[in-house]
Design a protein that fits this description.
Elements: E1 17-22, E2 33-34, E3 40-41, H1 46-60, E4 63-68, H2 82-93, E5 100-102, H3 106-111, H4 114-120, E6 132-137, E7 140-144, H5 160-172, H6 200-215, E8 219-223, H7 242-250, E9 255-260, E10 267-270, E11 276-279, E12 292-298, E13 302-309, E14 314-317
Helix pairs in contact: 6-7
Bound molecules: the ligand Nc1ccn([C@@H]2O[C@H](COP(=O)(O)OP(=O)(O)OC[C@H](O)CO)[C@@H](O)[C@H]2O)c(=O)n1.
Length: 320
């Protein structure tokens, strides 16, 4: 490919590294059902999707790691079975030859409080925190956000973070059923009980990480269960303070992509700063025999998502 200065630009063929992706397994040993809005959900089949995902990742033989974008067990899982169900899904992830990084989603928290959940997901974090970062190669850094840091689910009922979340819901959502966006308009529809926010301390931590990444010339991929751009997801799937998170991200040029789950249909957008937002299609909504998972090849100038079946493939090219 010839460039403006007449030199030939050679596109790198070998990725720097590759990693697996899957989201919203929402397994439960219950009959098939539907979402609140009537979309079919295949609770028992979803663990088979995960099984096939891990097989594909293992057959690839060269994945450095995999990322699960949250919601491993569905909220309809009968509560006495929650622990077993979470263990069963975690065990399935553990058949992966490469390490798997997890993040929490609302359905994880319907099943177990975060103090029980986090050790099972073996997050590289301290205390009850569920945000962390890691760098698989000197060129790249991954930031995993905890979008349920400020949330009405997962924390003890009298915890200050529960109180803060309930106050936000009270102010922003006029409905008595706080999972309902009825009568709410556009992005205001995100103020739902099944969403949450990134807290102040976490935002400060994110800022510091991005500062250091900029200094080290790393490219950063931000991962969060909830979406961070209204162009990539339904308004109901957005993190409460997605604007504040993106304001921090846009202070720097190092973040090249934000990847999420939560909005099961999936989506892709490029925001005004050239950051890609890719929302991954859910494993839960795969009719028997179909799949939704993938792997991403990371290059110096792009991320190439190779999706299987219902997960669309996406080329995310970015400016250096
Ligand atoms: N209008 C609504 C929508 C949902 N609910 C109830 O809220 C709980 C969580 O909903 P669910 O669809 O299971 O959440 P997911 O995390 O799977 O999906 C997120 C969305 O797709 C984001 O757009 C559940 O109990 C629903 O019944 C509600 O009451 N009213």
């Amino acid at each position: 490919m010839a460039s403006a200065n007449g030199l030939v630009k050679v596109q790198q063929k070998q990725p720097l590294f590759s990693f697996g992706v899957i989201s919203d397994v929402q397994y439960a040993d219950i009959p098939d059902g539907r979402s609140f809005l009537g979309v079919p959900r295949y609770y028992r089949h979803s663990i088979q999707v995960l099984q096939r995902a891990v097989k594909k990742w293992n057959d690839h033989e060269n994945l450095k790691f995999a990322i699960n974008f949250g919601d491993i067990v569905d909220g309809f899982c009968p509560k006495p079975e929650s622990l077993n169900a979470v263990q069963k899904v975690v065990k399935q992830f553990e058949t992966s030859y490469c390490p798997v990084y997890h993040m929490i989603g609302n359905h994880c928290l319907y099943n177990l409080p975060r103090k029980d959940l986090l050790p099972m997901l073996k997050m590289p974090t301290a205390n009850d925190q569920a945000y962390y970062d890691f760098s698989p190669t000197p060129d790249y850094r991954f930031v995993v956000l905890d979008g349920y840091d400020i949330s009405a689910i997962g924390w003890p009922h009298d915890h200050p973070k529960t109180m803060e979340a309930l106050k936000i819901l009270q102010e922003k959502n006029p409905n008595s059923e706080k999972n309902s966006p009825a009568g709410m308009v556009a992005v205001e529809r995100r103020f739902l009980m099944f969403n949450g926010a990134v807290g102040k301390e976490q935002l400060e931590w994110l800022d510091k990480i991005l500062q250091v990444s900029t200094k080290h010339e790393e490219k950063v991929v931000v991962c969060c269960h909830m979406a961070l751009d209204p162009g990539a997801a339904g308004y109901e799937a957005l993190c409460w303070n997605y604007g504040e998170v993106m304001e921090v991200i846009h202070r720097y040029k190092c973040v090249k992509a934000c990847i999420a789950g939560h909005d099961h249909k999936g989506g892709h957008s490029i925001d005004s700063h050239g950051v890609h937002h890719r929302v991954l299609e859910a494993a839960l909504e795969c009719p028997p025999g179909s799949d939704a998972f993938g792997y991403i090849d990371a290059y110096p100038d792009r991320l190439s998502l190779f999706g299987t079946d219902r997960m669309a493939s996406t080329e995310m090219v970015f400016d250096l």
